[in-house]
């Protein structure tokens, strides 16, 4: 399919959501980037055109004012040539000079007002565009996060319901807008309602119970129960065990700052697919490259969906541990039975 003919970003996002092909998704993402850049260029061109028109209008008004001033001056000089009373001529000349002085002051004042309005207009437009982009990114992140949690909650056998609220505040000058969004998901397990904030962790808990179903004690079968903190610790230890050969480069101590440059993700997927890329060539300072390499490789080789957004990970020195935990949990689910894992 020729994506270059599509100029609607919303349509491209729908195609991206519906596509499972790795190469097709990369093409769609590249086209979305091109469309955004094209829209930005078009907006800049329109803004410059409006600015030029405003400047031309001001110049034309100044030219007309100078012509009017010259006509009045010529009329005065013509009248003065035929006037015989020197006193009256002197008073008229002073009156005309005073008018010229006032006209120059008015001209200067209008120029200062125009320049001030132009500066405010430019800043407000820039802030408006930035605010729209930021709100759109928040919206997309909320949707992706909700889909991820719903998927894990369904895997844990839960019924899902969702409510959302939004609040918009606009300042008195009308130039800035702040929007606050809150998503609340409620799940049902065995007829009782519980907040879904730990849905991903509960899914991992059931997944681990499936791999380690029972523990015999006192002659009877008793289900192996683990607390959320024990599950988190177990997954962290699994990550350390899978990346022992990379201890000279990475140190996995938590689910936040230990993953902020992308090398931990690269090491984890490289352990299972060492032929996919050269780990030793990676640079911890090239964070964007590391995140993109890890997410793309995991999706291509292990069919692990890229639940984390590269832009969000780059902005944060300490990523949200719950988001990282949820994504790493998908590594465990997909690769727990991998032959490289069994070797450990």
From TrEMBL:
Signal peptide: none annotated. Residues 161-179 have a biased composition (Low complexity). Residues 36-69, 155-179 are annotated as: Disordered. Keywords: Coiled coil, Phosphoprotein. Coiled coil: none annotated. InterPro entries: CH_dom, CH_dom_sf, F-actin_Monoox_Mical, SMTN. The keyword Coiled coil applies. It comes from the Eukaryota. Residues 229-336 form the Calponin-homology (CH) domain. The keyword Phosphoprotein applies. SMART domains: CH. Belongs to the smoothelin family. This is Calponin-homology (CH) domain-containing protein.
């Amino acid at each position: 399919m020729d994506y270059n003919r599509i100029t609607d970003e919303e349509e491209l996002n729908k195609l991206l959501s519906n596509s499972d092909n790795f190469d097709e998704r990369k093409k769609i993402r590249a086209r979305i980037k091109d469309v955004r850049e094209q829209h930005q260029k078009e907006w800049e061109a329109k803004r410059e055109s409006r600015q030029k028109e405003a400047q031309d209008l001001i110049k034309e008004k100044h030219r007309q004012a100078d012509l009017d001033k010259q006509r009045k001056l010529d009329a005065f000089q013509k009248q003065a040539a035929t006037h015989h009373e020197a006193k009256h001529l002197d008073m008229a000349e002073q009156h005309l000079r005073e008018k010229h002085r006032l006209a120059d002051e008015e001209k200067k004042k209008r120029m200062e007002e125009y320049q001030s309005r132009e500066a405010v207009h430019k800043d407000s437009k820039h802030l408006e565009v930035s605010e729209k982009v930021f709100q759109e990114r928040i919206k997309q992140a909320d949707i992706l996060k909700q889909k991820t949690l719903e998927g894990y909650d369904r895997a844990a056998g839960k019924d899902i319901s969702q409510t959302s609220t939004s609040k918009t505040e606009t300042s008195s000058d009308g130039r800035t807008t702040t929007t606050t969004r809150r998503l609340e998901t409620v799940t049902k397990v065995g007829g009782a309602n519980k907040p879904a904030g730990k849905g991903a962790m509960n899914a991992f808990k059931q997944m681990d119970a499936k791999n380690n179903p029972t523990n015999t004690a006192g002659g009877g079968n008793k289900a192996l129960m683990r607390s959320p903190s024990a599950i988190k610790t177990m997954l962290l230890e699994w990550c350390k065990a899978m990346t022992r050969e990379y201890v000279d480069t990475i140190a996995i101590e938590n689910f936040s700052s230990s993953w902020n440059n992308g090398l931990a993700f690269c090491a984890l997927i490289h352990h299972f697919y060492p032929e996919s890329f050269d780990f030793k060539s990676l640079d911890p300072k090239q964070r964007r490259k590391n995140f993109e390499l890890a997410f793309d490789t995991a999706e291509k080789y292990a069919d692990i969906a890229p639940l984390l957004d590269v832009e969000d990970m780059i902005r944060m020195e300490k990523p949200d541990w719950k988001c990282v935990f949820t994504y790493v949990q998908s590594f465990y689910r997909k690769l727990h039975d991998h032959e490289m894992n069994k070797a450990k």
